[in-house]
Amino acid sequence: MTNHTPTTDEGPAGFETPVAQELEALEKSLTEDISQRVSLKGYLKRLTGAVGKQDAVSLSKLLSDAKLTKLMNIYPQAKPAVDLLTARVGYLREAGIKNIESRLREYCDAQHLQLQGGPPKFVVEHFIEVEFRSAAKGGLKIGNATVKVVAWDNVKNTLDKERQRIWERPFNPKQFKTDVLRAYTKIAQAKKNPTGWVRLYDVYQDLKSERFKEQKASGQKPRLVPYYKDEFGADISRLLEQEGNASGRRSFELSAIRDSRYAFKIIMPGGNAGRFGFLRPAKDST
Known about the structure:
Shape: elongated
Structural class: alpha+beta
Radius of gyration: 31 Å
Order of helices and strands: EEHHHHEEEEEHHEHHEEEE
Number of helices: 8
Largest sheet: 5 strands, antiparallel
Strand content: 5-15%
Number of strands: 12
Distance between the termini: 122 Å
């Protein structure tokens, strides 16, 4: 009797196929491992470069990157350096915030502007929010604009532009009163309310729609938002101020609203700001 090894179409006892599959899986794993380590090497190079430049913004973003966790898992010896770097970035961020806060207070004092709040969020002239974004995002949010590089000149220029956008737009109080009354009448007829109140949000949406039509008809490139909420609140405030200076009689009454999403910040005569959500013509208005 002769010895005979069982064979199949795949070789002796199907031996080659499972081994080949294991080797292919190992090769794939090695390729992925090498690729990951190459990626981490690139990440580490960017991190080292940001350290050399003392770039707190870039460092904050890099330290928030998911690659850091992978780096620490594979090379736990990196932890002491990362801990020191995290502390340094925190210090640089705090120092940057304090510097901007100091310059912001000087700016408001010099121009007699009201400044409220404290880090990470301030409010200039009731309407303009100056907010430090998270360390991962970096930069500042000023009104509707974003400052990516937090240098005082950038902050000041953006703040100036936002103040111009809100307070220095052409404003005709008589025409604005007419526009608000027209929108009020239209909404009140469609949404009957025995109290006479209509939502400020609905009035705003109507005026915004009209502004869009005007911009489109003018042939000029329209703004992304033809009429911002803070601009509407500022215009109501300017109308109230003008009426207070002229006769002391208000054209409209205002009331609060529970849902803050539909509330508008408005400065009342005398300088106090409030949040309101309903409007109706004043009983003694002419």
